[in-house]
Amino acid sequence: MQQIINFIIRNKTFLLFLLLFSISILFTIQSHSYHRSKFINSANFLTGGVYNTANNLSQYFNLKSQNKILSEENNRLKSLLFNSNNTTDSTFVDSTSFNKQYKFTSANIIRNSYAGTDNILLINKGIKDSIKEDFGVITSKGILGIINKTSTNYATVISILNTTSNISAKLKKTDHFGSLKWDAKNPNITQLTDIPKVANIKVGDTVVTSGLSSIFPKGINIGIVENFELDQAENYYEVNVKLFNDMTNIEHVYIIENIDIEEITNLLNSN
Amino acid sequence: MNSVISLNGIRFLVLVLVQVLICNHINFMGYINPYLYILFIILYPTKNNRSLFIFLSFLLGLTIDLFSDSGGIHAAASVFIAYARPLILRSSFGVQYENYAIKFDNVEFGSKISYITFLTIMHHIIFFSLEIFSASKIILVLQKTLFSSIFTILLSILITIIFSRKT
Lengths: 271, 167
Hints:
CATH class of chain B: Mainly Alpha
Distance between the termini of chain A: 57 Å
Largest interface: A-B, 39 and 36 residues
Number of helices of chain A: 5
Oligomer: heterodimer
Number of strands of chain B: 0
Number of helices of chain B: 7
Transmembrane segments (chain B): 12-32, 52-68, 75-93, 113-133, 145-164
Helix content of chain B: over 70%
Number of domains of chain B: 1
Strand content of chain B: under 5%
Shape of chain B: globular
Strand content of chain A: 25-35%
Keywords (chain B): Membrane, Transmembrane, Transmembrane helix
Structural class of chain B: mainly alpha
Protein name (chain B): Rod shape-determining protein MreD
């Protein structure tokens, strides 16, 4: 016993180093696996507060470009609204009375990140605004990611620019679906894998969400086909998709809540 | 003694804020960021309580990790260079450092550069291997290490010159 204590005292620096180093490695391994519970995330009072304060200042610098993006979106929605043929019944103006499947919440990105391999964003809405894990996040141009951790006022988003992210997507033209991943090389290009060989795919085709995962509604824009090739087994295409979003310049986002998600998961689990 | 504690405390806070609010968003050429916070480990007094120093480095790394949602990669790299620092000190400044405390403002410029370079490269190799976490992407690790190291070393030397209080 005496010897063990002596050993610990003699090597206390090395043992402390070993302890702290293994704790950090543990955190690292946890952060590399999708959706594991981890203590180290930026959706908390301290880091969220610091980023929010910094963002309050820095958002003035790109007001002009963000306003342009928003007015472009308004323009698109206006032209959709006034060119649609179906005349809506004006008695149903109150949109809350509809029994709709998706609920939208707007939010601001207060920390953007796109240079690493596992990029995680921070938004300024949290549990207080009834944001929960696994809600989808989109911008006016295309999809952005999925909510990971929430705190009272903030939430983290797993960006599509994250090597652990995996989103179901399909070709708009032919309805063949595959999964959207990222190889950590270029923040404008993501990879769509598992598109079957029979799909008649062309450069410039639009890629949209498939709606299979019940996180995103069907048909949200993702990007266009940049180039494609067969994988090693020559059964599936590997497609490089150029994103519609400029991931380096994102400010206003929408959070999508699927109200039926509980019903869907219950149904799937009961089988 | 009190001034040493307050100086390092202020340095800790300032470096964390500079790192998370400025350096993490530079993204020069798409992905090159300097990791300036290791200046805290570089400039920490050499006559010290080693356990406390290692623990403080861990805390520093963990704070940066908290802000950048990166698990424990900053903490691991910081703890490692804090543990390995005496070795680097000996190889850069010779055995003389053990006899009296080094004043980083008054040392020879060449040994200071080699000291900062060794620590930075060691930190960045561990940092990027853990960040990318895949043996098949070793080229990407080395590439990121090289470019970010150059950036960090240049900025670190610049800052130590600007803020030096030569007597």
